[in-house]
Design a protein that fits this description.
10 strands; about 120 residues; mainly beta; four-stranded antiparallel sheet; globular
Length: about 120
């Protein structure tokens, strides 16, 4: 069974920082692009950031550019999302998945709450 387990979500104040982690078990994702996604209350799940395996090229949605950094450590089957200058609108459940996302890899996510 392939699992992607997200962790690191917390409640923080605006302007704060968090680092989310996503560890895979049951499968190595070397060769895959990996991404972070988020789902805010009563909103659709949206793309946040992605990192390509072969080149380590990164992609971000406009609202997080300059504030969030995605990285991966293939040897650890782990992808990270460093989030700085957090805003209340970043409040959401954050998920990792391949990029593009595959239905079978959605995990439970980790809650990030940013208070004003």
């Amino acid at each position: 069974q392939v699992l992607l387990t997200e962790s690191g979500g917390e409640s923080v104040q605006a302007g704060g920082s968090l680092t989310l982690s996503c560890a895979s078990s049951g499968h190595t994702f070397s060769g895959y692009a990996l991404g972070w996604f988020r789902e805010a209350l009563e909103k659709d799940r949206e793309f946040v950031a992605a990192v390509v395996f072969s080149t380590d090229s990164t992609y971000y949605t406009d609202s997080v550019k300059g504030r969030f950094t995605i990285s991966r450590v293939n040897a650890k089957n782990t992808v990270y999302l460093q989030m700085n200058s957090l805003k209340p609108e970043d409040t959401a459940i954050y998920y990792c998945n391949t990029f593009p996302a595959k239905l079978r890899y959605w995990g439970q996510g980790t809650q990030v709450t940013v208070s004003p």
